[in-house]
Amino acid sequence: MTLAESGISVSQFFAFLAGQYKIDKKINTKADFLIHFRKFLLEARSSGKKVLLVVEDAENQNDDIIEEIRLLSNMDEAGNKLLSLLLIGNKDLEGKLLEHHHRALLQRVAVRCHIDPFTEKETAAYIRHRMMVAGSFMEIFTAEAVHAIHRFSEASPVSSI
After folding, report:
1. Which of the ends of the chain has fewer CB neighbours closer than 10 A, N or C?
2. Whole-model pTM above 0.85?
């Protein structure tokens, strides 16, 4: 399940999670959500499944949502975590996690990685690769177009318009 929306309220966050995880119980309060979500996580675990929450643009999530994500990551059964988290963000995410009020979440981070900006040559290779994946083996981008794409994307394969 992927959370890509930013600027949502805590109640919208819980409603979103309930919908994405197909928890079709009546949820009026945070307590309702937590009861049903824990049951969902335990059922997934008992059937051998792992649950992953992917938060895209995590640097844009408000502090209340980040805190709720941290609290959800506390859910465990017999010392085993019931929910795995993957926070994805730009260079501002690390700065956000370094803020004092997010130190508890930062302490739980098991792996960190970042993608260095592409060189223009790497941008060209990435464009060729994506074109081949799409089924085109023709060179349709000029060197000038690749240069413009590289500059516009700030040399990142994950930039968006």
Report:
1. C
2. no
Domains of the chain, by residue range, sit at: 2-108, 120-152
CA angle, 51 as apex, 40 and 63 as ends, to 5°? 95
CATH number of 2-108: 3.40.50.300
Q: What contacts 128, CB < 8 A, 6 or more positions away?
A: 139
Per-residue pLDDT tens digits for 27-78? 888 898 999 999 999 999 999 999 999 888 888 888 999 999 999 998 999 8
The H or E element containing residue 70 is helix 63-73
Q: Tokens 């994405």 label which residue?
A: 20
List, in order, residues 6 or more apart from 108 with CB less than 8 Å away.
70, 73
